[in-house]
Amino acid sequence: MDPFPLPNIDQLVDETAGCEIMSFLDAFRGYHQIFMHEEDAEKTAFMTPEGIFCYLVMAFGLKNSGATYTRMVARVFQAVLGCTMEAYVDDMIVKSKQSSSHADDLREIFAIMQKFNLRLNPKKCTFGVQGGKFLGYMVSRRGIEANPEKIQAIINMEP
Q1: Backbone phi and psi for residue 126, each to the nearest 5 degrees, phi listed first
Q2: Which of 27, 113, 137, 151 has its CA 20 to 30 A from that of 107?
Q3: CA–CA gap between residue 130 and residue 3 (Å, rounded)
Q4: Which CATH number fits domain 9-155: 3.40.1280.10, 3.40.50.300, 3.30.70.270, 1.20.1070.10?
Q5: pLDDT, tens digit (0-9, with 9 covering 90-100), for 69-119
Q6: Are 159 and 153 a contacting pair, CB within 8 Å?
């Protein structure tokens, strides 16, 4: 069992308050970007009509995959986490106090990703916005705001 902890969601969301501009990033098949240790790959064996196969990359659902991925993110992005970036598993936010520094902040994140051969899912990324959804919360410069999806039932209630 790997006891590496997940970050505190409330703290991550609170850290976005006061940021003028943000970019929301999503890792492309995050767990699959980590190769299995050769000796551990055989422990992931599964059988199909075509034969017996092993995962060569970390699969979602393995006992320690969440902790392993979180540790990797913490190590790879240690220089920027808590400063210009927050991350929770494969959801990341690049945040800048001033719009003028956002391109440089993104450039730094992309350089780290390129160095470690990490990829993003462009369909799930949003760049250079004043707010958006992060970990189910609507975040902006003002902090946490009501998520319209979550309050729609209340809005639609009859008096």
Answers
A1: -135, 130
A2: 137
A3: 35
A4: 3.30.70.270
A5: 888 899 999 999 999 999 988 889 999 999 999 999 999 999 999 999 898
A6: no
Write the single-letter amino acid at 135: L
Cα→Cα distances 106→25, 61, 112, 127, 141, Å: 10, 31, 10, 9, 18
Give the DSSP H/E element, type plus range, for residue 39.
Answer: helix 38-41
Quick one: tokens of 25?
């990033």
Q: Domain locations in the chain?
A: 9-155
CA–CA dist 102, 23 (Å, integer): 9
Return the structure tokens found at 110. Answer: 């992309």
What stretch of H or E contains 139?
strand 137-140
